[in-house]
Each structure stands twice: as C-alpha cells, then as structure tokens.
Amino acid sequence: MSSGPAARVVGKVGLASLCALLAFSAPSPAAPDRADRELEARLRAHIEVLASDDFDGREPGTEGEAKTLRYLGRQWYDIGLVSGTHDPGNEWFAPVLLVAREPAASAAQFLRKGFRTPLSPPDVLVLTSGKRSLVRDAPLLFVGRARGLDFSRNELAGRVAVVLDGDTPDSERQNELLAMGASAVLTVLDGGRSIAEVAARRQRSGYALADDSLGGDLEAFIGRASMEMLLKGTGHRLADLEQAAASPGFAPIVLDMTASLEANTRETTVRTHNLIGKLPGRHPESGAVLFLAHWDHFGECGEPPAEDVICNGAIDNASGVAALTEVARRLSRVPQMDRDVYFLATTAEELGLLGTHAFAENPPLPLDRIVAAFNIDSDAIAPRGTPFAIVGRGMTGLDADIARVAKAERVKLRDSDEANEYVKRQDGWALLQHDIPAVMVTTAYGDMDRMRAFFDSDYHRPSDDLAHLSRPLQLGGVVEDVKMLTALGRWFADPRRVPLNVK
Question: Kindly report the CA angle at 461 between 459 and 467, in degrees rounded to 5?
C-alpha cells in the first residue's frame, strides 16, 4: 500500500452540504421480478461509481475517501436516514485518527564470549511496530517451532527467542512468544523466504488508532547462511538444532551469545472517517440493530510498469457498501420499527479493522444496547439461488433467530461452520472483541469454492474492478442478501421477538 497519499487529510463533509443535495425519487411499486431487476441495477450503479478509477481505490486519508463519503452521504441522506453520530460537531462523519509507521532503520550486533561476530547490516533485518525499540545484550534461546504457550515466562523473560521459519511462517507464534515475555524474536529463514523478500513485504506501513499505544516489540530476521556463520564456535550447528526441534520432548536450548537489536520507524498521521446513519425507532430505549460494511480499499497498490495500478475494490468492498445502502433504502420504506437501526460504513478495515474498533471505543450508543450486528463484505461472489452461510456461526446467540428468519423467507441456510475460517478477517470480528454479537449472513460464503477462488485471484489486486475480474460480478446473490438482511433487520428490531438480553 502507498504511504504517500495516506498523509493527505480528508476535508470535513458537513450536514449542511448533504441538505443541499437532490432528493431521491423512489421507483413505483413493481412485481417481484421487476423489483429484483431494479435492485440489481441500483447495486451495479453503486459499484460502478465506488470502484471507478475516479475514486482511486478509496484509500483512507485521500481525495478518494472524500469522494466516497460524499457519494455515500448523499445516498443515505436522500434515502431518509439521519445522522447517527449523536455529535453536533461531527454529524454523519465520525473522525478516526490513525498513526502509520513504516520501517526507517535497523541495527543488529551479536557477541560471543565478549567478541563481536562478523555479520554485516544486510544479514539481519530488525523491525518494530513502535517508534523506536531497543534490546541490549540479551541472551539467545533457541525454541525451534514451538509456540509461546509451550514455555513459562521465566524461560523467555529477557531473552531473544530464536525460531525456525520453515515454509509456513506463523506470525501468531512470534506474537505469543513476545506476549510471554521474550525481549525479541529472531526468525531463522530456513524455508523459502529471503531477507530481501521479508524486507519488501514489511516495508508497508503498520497502522494503529492514534489513541492506542503501538507496541515496542522487536522482530528480527536472519538468513540460513548467516545463522550458520553466527553459530560457529558455539558448539551448535543449525542442522543439529533443526533436528532437535523436530524430536519429541524438545526443550529450549541456550545459545552461547547475546544480541543487541534496534529498530526505528517513521510516523505519519492519517485523518479519516466512519460514516454513521440511523433510522430512528419508536422505542430507542429497547435497543438497536447495526448494519455495517467497510468503504475503504488500498488506493494505488500496483507496481509500475503495470498499466493498472489502482486497487479499485469492486467486490471488496464496493459491493458490500452497495448492499448496505440498499438495505437502508428498503428498511426506510417499511413502517417505523421499534428499535433504532444504525448503518455504519467503516474506514481502515483493510488496515486492521481499525474503523470498527474506533466505533466501538467511542460509540454513539452504549454497546450493550446493540442486540445484533450484521456485517457485509465482498458480497458479489455467488449467483442467485446460492445457500446462505453465517460467518461467526456458533459464536453469538443470534443463530436461532437467523434460522427462523431464513425459514420465513424460504431461503436455505447452510448447516456448517466452514465459513468461520474467515471470521477474523472482517469487521464483525472487531465487534466480537467488544462483546457485540456480530455475524455475516450472506450467500458469498454459501459456496466456499467460489469464495476461495476470489481470494486466490482478484482479492486485493488491481483486477478487482468491473473490467478485469477473473469471474463476472454476481449480483443475483447480492439481491438475495439485501432481501434477507432487510428481513433480519425487521426481525431483530422487534423487541417482542428478540429481547434486549439476546446476548
């Protein structure tokens, strides 16, 4: 992702500018088939606008964000939504302040019996998520491929945990070791990765909410040949260590050397926004229902000399925001519901679900008043007639009521947890971390082969636009998703059907 455009600041879009926009004229009532065709046409029109090159990939903090928010704000205002921020100073658009940090400097020194080993700076890469992190003269402890929970804090505290990379890098393992007290983690690239490849991948900025303190953790990487050179004179060979790590009953091995590691980053502030709208209910004290979808994507993410460098994000997630908008339209036309229904278009999902975390940390209503949240992401995958799946199935108290609505709507609901493979990769996961019952109910994950094909082809690539998709955009499933989500909104907005203590 590009860090330069992220430094630009989005201009504030106020309620006054929304009020000046033209009102939406609702189509005349029509037969179901015609209504579905009209809904599909509106969905396609939203996606064509949001995924156009004119929006430049909808990167947070850029003019692409400003255009995205103006477009969505106008649509929501015309539909009849009101501001859901409950903040007169920031109507509709809730500010989210991000800090981006990218690697700036790396240094490593190893001592064996008080003497410095002959490694040059390119042999070791040191990275941190903090502004500056430093470890001096910490002993090295070889832990192989073990996880952090395999050790006690006493074993790891104050030491650099040396791990084997293999062909399946595991960032969770490194995080566990750091959480258990390791001063740093030194990964030996004994598989297919090289220092240059790791450096190229990690040159991307790391992001966090400005209110959150980024950790000062240290991660270092060393190539196989350099590690073999480092071990000379210690009585250990890398091949012997690898063999020991693979044997039953492996115990960590203290290596006869210490490490001093340092990493620095450059910091940039990114000002971005969530968009929050609301359909007021008759009895807001009875709770609220939340629908959400992330509006952001990666901006210009392709590498020259490629002709197409814009990651337009047609499926991920212009399709989801389009569906969110049409759910709002349909719910605005039914008789006023008892509960408030909120609509949230989040920023910085692609940067770590940060916009959703910002919403939950500064919510417009008490979080325990949200009886259900329905996320919409990468929706235009499956054709009409595909069964629905629940991403987050079994993780909330919502499943039984979702099944009742599916039966009433005469749609098939998959009796499988397979879609939960992706639960941590979408905004609903951030809500779950804040004890908000959140799921995705969608046809997109009703055919896992189609979803995996998208992840293996156009996902997070410039080809995720209407002109270059590997498979045609599927709007039939989105139409059915919108209808099902509308039914879910009406069901969960009824306190007689779903008590406030649904969680």
Answer: 95
